[in-house]
Design goal:
170 residues, mainly alpha, 8 helices
Length: 170
């Protein structure tokens, strides 16, 4: 059982009082960034929990799931923007109806980002989109790990596990 986790990345460190957010900056590394961070939305503790979930996938499965791989390069060569490739992966891997609704609510004051998210949601099952939900990956670990990751990577920032919940997770 994990009792304490400490990850540090001081590149964009800032103290945020309870209930406060940072907005309008592209924070963090592309490979670990949350959907709201890719779209320069409100960033706070749930943003870090999403990133922690992606780090957990790397630690357990050895995969950088938003990193540049052959598929990423193929889509990039076809003109897809790196941010949109990563966002499509996020929506495809971790999207479910309530989560995307919550993420859209998070961006309710930004028509452009809502349009992008709706487009990615609608296209997630298209033939040219090869990404499948995390829950369907054959190598996604045991049921407890799968449940933890799904809690940490919920697209709706308000529904993500908090740090104490992640540490108490079986």
């Amino acid at each position: 059982m994990v009792e304490q986790v400490q990850i540090i990345d001081l590149e964009n460190a800032a103290y945020q009082p309870q209930g406060r957010s940072i907005k309008g900056m592209l924070a963090g590394n592309d490979d670990w960034r949350s959907p709201e961070a890719h779209l320069k939305g409100k960033l706070n503790k749930p943003t870090d929990m999403f990133s922690f979930g992606i780090v957990c996938i790397y630690a357990v499965l050895g995969r950088i799931i938003f990193g540049v791989d052959e598929d990423f390069q193929k889509h990039g060569a076809q003109g897809a923007l790196p941010t949109l490739i990563r966002l499509q992966r996020q929506v495809s891997y971790f999207g479910e109806r309530e989560g995307i609704k919550g993420l859209l609510k998070h961006f309710s004051d930004d028509d452009t980002n809502c349009t992008i998210l709706r487009m990615l949601w609608d296209e997630r099952s298209e033939e040219h989109i090869p990404y499948r939900p995390f829950s369907e990956w054959p190598d996604n670990g045991d049921a407890s790990f799968k449940d933890l990751i799904q809690g940490l990577t919920n697209l709706d920032p308000t529904m993500r596990l908090m740090a104490h919940q992640a540490l108490e997770h079986p």
